[in-house]
């Protein structure tokens, strides 16, 4: 019986497999093999026994079913892996399995390997989203639309600039992810409380060899576990990424509202159903799904930060939470980013509706442009601001176009010709450096 929606509704198999029971076991065995090899390199154990441990750790001879059987008896997940591997090894090699290590030497290092692989997928996702957004930015470089602040019409922008802003934000997340990678891809091999006593006088060398073999870093000073500030950081980065995806999706949801209608998610004309009763509906369901899942990922921040604090060199309070928060954070972030790329790659954009919405403001959104035009003609900025404010309010009260009131204002018409006024009221002529910004961001991403 399936309970968790990750099992049947959310996430792609490629990411889920990284955090599967089978993969966790494979990574733990990989760490055990690296430990045996390190012992052999420093001369603690015979090479033939290290090779035997390595071969049995990687040959599929340790079965998940057998590990679970042993755990039923021992009540200890890591010891069950150690005993299962011991069973598979030669008689001479058995005495060296897990030599000098504590459970978290194996589990934390295995987790680092899993998260490193997961970070690779998230980085790939972010690049995909940034490319999709850059493509949209280029396509709509000069598509003029209303900029909105406080939910109200502001001044014109371009849809291309909106997409460029999102694309650049996505690239910042890629930078954060790569910076966090080196701090999360970290294991440990220093024994029960971090002294390495059971590993012998060459403990530090053994740790260095193990991590070099696994291509990850190591905790230079630890108690029994890797510092959980590392885990909190990566989950915070993932929550940040998902929050941006929610921001982008929220914009789609708003632009798809009937009274705006400037963009919309793709909708399957032949088969897709928007509502079980309202047959006309085309709902932004994927964008809404992105927003909902982003909230779940942010919710994982609390236990992640709670896990930083534990008793002395360790307790087991973080063990149970991490079984939930690490796989869920990565699987849901991956799912969210894949959906974000899909939404924007197939987004329906309606430039004519954007133009209609600008025109519906009857020139009100060009008040700043008029103010700047007056300042260029010698009027003081504050005086020009008051004048355009008063004129805009008068036009709104009369329900007429801003131009009509401006054209009757003697102060305005003394400074501006009819042609200059028309230009000041043209939305397409008041997008500033939007085009250049788009070009710059598209070039940066590509």
Question: Can you walk through the features of this model?
Answer:
The chain is mainly alpha-helical. It has 3 domains: 15-94, Orthogonal Bundle (Fumarase C, Chain B, domain 1); 103-139 and 146-351, Fumarase C, Chain A, domain 2, CATH 1.20.200; 364-424, Fumarase/aspartase (C-terminal domain) (Ribonucleotide Reductase Protein R1, domain 1). It has helices at residues 5-8, 13-18, 21-41, 47-58, 64-74, 77-88, 91-94, 103-139, 159-184, 203-214, 229-255, 285-299, 301-306, 317-345, 351-360, 367-376, 381-398, 402-407, 410-415, 418-424, 434-445, and strands spanning 144-149, 152-158, 186-187, 217-218, 263-264, 348-349. The strands form 3 sheets. Strands 1-2 form a two-stranded antiparallel ribbon. It has a two-stranded parallel sheet with strand order 3-4. Strands 5-6 form a two-stranded antiparallel ribbon. A hairpin with a 2-residue loop joins strand 1 and strand 2. Helix 11 runs parallel beside helix 14. It is elongated. The model has no long low-confidence stretch (mean pLDDT 95).
Mind summarizing the main beta sheet?
A: 2 strands, antiparallel
Proportion in helices: 55-70%
Radius of gyration: 30 Å
* Mean pLDDT across residues: 95
Number of domains: 3
CATH topology of the largest domain: Fumarase C, Chain A, domain 2
- CATH arch. level architecture of the largest domain: Up-down Bundle
Kindly provide the name of the CATH class of the largest domain. Mainly Alpha
- Tally of contiguous helical segments: 21
Beta strand %: under 5%
Morphology: elongated
Order of helices and strands: HHHHHHHHEEHEHEHEHHHEHHHHHHH
> Uncertain spans, ≥5 residues at pLDDT below 50?
none
By helix and strand content, what is the structural category?
A: mainly alpha
């Amino acid at each position: 019986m399936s309970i968790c929606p990750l099992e049947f509704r959310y996430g792609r198999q490629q990411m889920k497999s990284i955090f599967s029971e089978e993969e966790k076991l494979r990574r733990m065995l990989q760490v055990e093999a690296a430990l045996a090899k390190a012992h052999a390199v420093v001369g603690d154990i015979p090479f033939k026994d290290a090779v035997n441990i390595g071969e049995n750790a990687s040959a599929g001879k340790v079965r998940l079913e057998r590990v679970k059987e042993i755990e039923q008896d021992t009540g200890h997940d890591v010891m069950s892996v150690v005993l299962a591997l011991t069973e598979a090894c030669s008689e001479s090699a058995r005495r060296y399995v897990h030599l000098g290590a504590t459970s978290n030497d194996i589990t934390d290092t295995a987790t680092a390997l899993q998260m490193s692989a997961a970070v690779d997928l998230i980085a790939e996702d972010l690049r995909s989203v940034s490319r999709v957004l850059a493509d949209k930015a280029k396509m709509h470089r000069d598509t003029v639309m209303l900029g909105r602040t406080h939910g109200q019409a502001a001044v014109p922008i371009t849809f291309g600039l909106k997409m460029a802003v999102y694309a650049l934000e996505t690239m910042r997340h890629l930078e954060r992810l790569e910076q966090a990678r080196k701090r999360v891809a970290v294991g440990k091999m220093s024994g029960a409380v971090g002294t390495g006593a059971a590993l012998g006088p060459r403990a530090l060398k053994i740790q260095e060899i193990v991590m070099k073999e696994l291509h990850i870093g190591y905790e230079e000073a630890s108690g029994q576990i890797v510092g959980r500030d590392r885990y909190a950081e990566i989950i915070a980065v993932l929550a940040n990424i998902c929050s941006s995806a929610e921001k982008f999706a929220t914009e789609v949801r708003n632009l798809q509202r009937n009274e705006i209608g400037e963009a919309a998610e793709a909708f399957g004309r032949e088969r897709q159903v928007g509502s079980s009763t309202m047959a006309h509906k085309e709902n932004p369901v994927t964008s809404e799904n992105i927003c909902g899942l982003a909230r779940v990922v942010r919710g994982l921040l609390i236990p992640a930060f709670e896990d930083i604090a534990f008793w002395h060199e360790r307790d087991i309070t973080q063990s149970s939470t991490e079984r939930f928060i690490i796989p869920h954070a990565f699987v849901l972030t991956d799912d969210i980013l894949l959906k974000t790329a899909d939404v924007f790659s197939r987004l329906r954009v309606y430039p004519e509706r954007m133009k209609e919405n600008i025109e519906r403001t009857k020139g009100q959104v060009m008040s700043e442009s008029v103010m700047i035009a007056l300042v260029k003609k010698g009027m003081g900025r504050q005086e020009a601001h008051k004048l355009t404010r008063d004129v805009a309010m008068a036009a709104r009260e009369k329900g007429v176009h801003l131009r009509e009131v401006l054209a009757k204002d003697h102060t305005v018409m003394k400074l501006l010709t009819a042609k200059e006024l028309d230009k000041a009221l043209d939305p397409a002529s008041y997008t500033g450096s939007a085009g250049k910004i788009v070009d710059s961001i598209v070039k940066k991403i590509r």
